[in-house]
Design a protein that fits this description.
The complex is a heterodimer. By secondary structure, chain A is an alpha/beta fold. Chain A has nine helices and 14 strands. In chain A, α2 links the parallel β4 and β5. Chain B is α/β, with parallel strands linked by helices. Chain B has a seven-stranded parallel β-sheet, sandwiched between helices. Chain B has a five-stranded parallel β-sheet with strand order 15-14-16-17-18. In chain B, a hairpin with a 4-residue loop joins β9 and β10. The chains are: A alpha/beta, B alpha/beta. The interface between A and B is large, with 87 and 99 residues. β13 of chain A pairs antiparallel with β10 of chain B.
Chain lengths: 297, 344
């Protein structure tokens, strides 16, 4: 038994370079802009490849929505070891929002007949962080977000995932296949492509699917179908912060130390002294008052 | 698609340990600003059955209506049920704008709700405004915050998630009316939560931890850190250290807080045997509450502490743990998380 895994990847603007707002003030000046594979997507792909390696005969297909330059990201994916790469594009997709992107990728994942769809949890450029959830909903599939570990029970057609809930909380959730998983950047280290696969990837012809083949209506995903419209792209306003001024009573060295400390505010806690027992009671009372200790049920 | 002439501005409230999350309170005040400009009501939508307890806090920020259900299953553990309830409520009452705090437990619910309602979601916004026609106009960071996009929402209900810390309004107190909504249709959840637990203190991510228990030279060694670890475990927090303790080899370097370590802003920071060199204070000055234990009454850490305990960590902590282990706290363990802890 084998798995069919689809991994959604995106080519994003490399944000290490200087970026300029282009004419029309709604997009970037594309000239000479360098692109890269979205880091979270690279981790999503690694997770997909690890799953494939555990189940012989399984296949990973990388899908990307974007213009011809996205072939570069898909070639990186092939070099990394995915079995197939597909690009989806139509010129009407130029101004599409996150929901339209989700529609296109969901349709592609559906056409590929995926058991598991894996997405990065957010992109470096748009950064919506909702693509995976929207794909899951469009396909009517279970959604498992910020997954750090996956266990697949193929015979039961189910999976168990360990997920991060934030604030140090984790959960183990169970869902039936097919399912959609999102992976955050940094949960694994993407493998280094072998020279052999890198060379092989150079000559692969990457198919480009059109919207008609996916049965996605143009009206759903073109600019009219995209309900979010970017009207301006601006430099963010500066974040005003009070400058800290060290007290002139301090010695030069102390003032320097306080200044590099960014001005630590003093608090009004009076000293508590006493026996260890009294002090401990004081601490417990404070924790209780702050709601950090829950009374027993 | 939901009718376009929806009337209210809604905030779906995120919860933390049963209380309203600060980010949601902040958002209610923002929502009130929008609602007043549109001349409509502000409503807070509470997932869970104890909305009447939260109504005063929500009213203080400007909610004039509080919607809730008499249904126990509405919590973050059951996103499918929350989704069904919210979908039904929105279809029945057709709000004009639906807002969520950009909190990870609600992120997936917001994204999926938008798809169900056939509308778009502007996520992680830092500013909420209205354009000339009364449409929701948001600002959201793009390209890792290097640029900010101004985005108009053109489908109803207009939905957005809002990042905490960007609220600018104090809120306008009102007396909210609590409205019970009919129970959501029964759904069979697509995912089932089998287990929920906290990372052990020494493995928990320091950045983002609610509680941090940190130790310095005054802890005396690995034995002392074992005490700290027990305390952190008991409070559901992470274990951290000052540079002195890391250099002594008692704690691995990735646990260090300070200038050459990590910067944390937990709700509670307990500094044990840390003198409070400026290099350390920089890393923890944004903690909401600081408890410091040190033998030296002139230690600089006491200047930034809300509770300053002059004593030896090795004597005080065992007593603290003892007091927690007996009496009324005996069963209040937080590891694994008890039933109500993960409330949405």
């Amino acid at each position: 038994m084998a798995l069919r895994i689809t991994v959604c990847i995106a080519q994003v603007v490399d944000i290490e370079q200087p970026i300029e707002v282009g004419r029309g003030a709604c997009g970037l000046d594309e000239e000479g802009l360098a692109h890269m594979l979205n880091p979270a997507d690279a981790c999503a792909m690694e997770a997909a490849l690890q799953l494939r390696d555990r189940f012989p005969g399984s296949q990973v297909v990388a899908v990307s929505m974007g213009p011809a330059r996205c072939d570069e990201a898909l070639r990186d994916a092939l070099a990394q070891g995915v079995d197939e790469a597909v690009r989806v594009w139509d010129d009407v997709l130029g101004g599409c929002d996150c929901r339209a992107t989700a529609r296109v990728l969901a349709a592609a994942a559906h056409k590929l007949g995926s058991d598991i769809v894996v997405c990065g949890d957010r992109s470096l450029d748009g950064g919506s962080g909702i693509l995976g959830a929207q794909i899951a909903e469009l396909l009517g599939l279970p959604l498992l977000e910020d997954v750090v570990r996956v266990e697949v029970m193929l015979d039961e057609r189910a999976l168990l995932c360990e997920l991060r809930l934030g604030g140090g909380l984790r959960a183990v959730e169970r869902a039936g296949l097919p399912a959609v998983l999102t992976i955050a950047a940094g949960v694994n280290v993407p493998r280094y492509p072998a020279l052999r696969t890198r060379l092989a990837a150079r000559s692969v012809v990457i198919p480009c699917w059109s919207l008609s083949g996916l049965r996605v209506g143009l009206g759903e995903v073109n600019e009219e179908g995209s309900a979010l419209r970017t009207v301006a792209l601006l430099r963010p306003p500066p974040d005003p912060r009070g400058l800290f001024k060290p007290s002139s009573d301090l010695s030069g060295q102390e003032r320097y130390m306080v200044a590099i400390g960014g001005g630590v505010e003093e608090r009004q806690g009076g000293l508590c002294e006493g026996s260890p027992d009294e002090l401990a009671a004081q601490i417990v009372a404070d924790l209780e008052q702050g709601g950090f200790l829950r009374p027993s049920r | 698609m939901v009718a376009s002439e929806g009337s209210e501005v809604w905030v779906v409230v995120a919860r933390r340990e049963g209380e309203v999350d600060d980010a949601s309170l902040e958002l209610v005040a923002e929502a009130r600003g929008l609602a007043d400009r549109l001349g409509v009501a502000t409503a807070a939508v509470v997932l869970g059955q104890d909305a009447h307890l939260l109504a005063p806090a929500l009213g203080e920020k400007g909610a004039s209506v509080v919607y809730s259900w008499a249904d126990e299953a509405l919590s973050a553990k059951h996103p499918d049920i929350c989704l069904a309830a919210l979908e039904q409520a929105v279809r029945e009452r057709s709000p004009r704008i639906v807002l969520f705090a950009a909190e990870r437990r609600l992120r997936g619910v917001a994204a999926r709700l938008a798809i169900r309602l056939g509308t778009a979601l502007a996520s992680e916004c830092t500013k909420l405004d209205l354009d000339g026609e009364g449409n929701l106009l948001v600002s959201r960071p793009v390209y890792q915050g290097r640029l900010s996009a101004r985005v108009v929402c053109r489908s109803f209900p207009q939905m957005a998630t809002f990042q905490s810390g960007y609220g600018r309004r104090p809120g306008l107190a009102s007396q909210p009316q609590v409205v019970r909504l009919p129970s959501p249709p029964s759904v069979s959840p697509l995912t089932r939560r089998e287990q929920e637990y906290r990372d052990p203190p020494a493995a928990m991510d320091l950045v983002g931890a609610d509680v941090v228990v940190a130790g310095g030279r005054g802890v005396g060694g690995p034995d002392g850190f074992a005490l700290l670890e027990r305390l952190a475990d008991r409070l559901g927090g992470a274990l951290a250290a000052s540079r002195a303790a890391v250099d002594a080899g008692w704690v691995p370097a990735h646990r260090q807080v300070g200038l050459s370590g990590k910067t944390v802003a937990p709700r509670l920071y307990i500094a044990c045997g840390i003198s409070g060199a400026v290099h350390h204070l920089v890393g923890m000055k944004d903690a909401k509450r600081v408890v410091a234990i040190n033998t030296d009454r002139n230690a600089p850490i006491f200047k930034v502490a809300d509770v300053a305990i002059v004593g030896d960590v090795r004597e005080v902590l065992p007593k603290v743990l003892e007091k927690m282990a007996t009496g009324e706290h005996a069963l209040s363990g937080f590891h694994p998380a008890p039933g109500g802890a993960g409330g949405i």
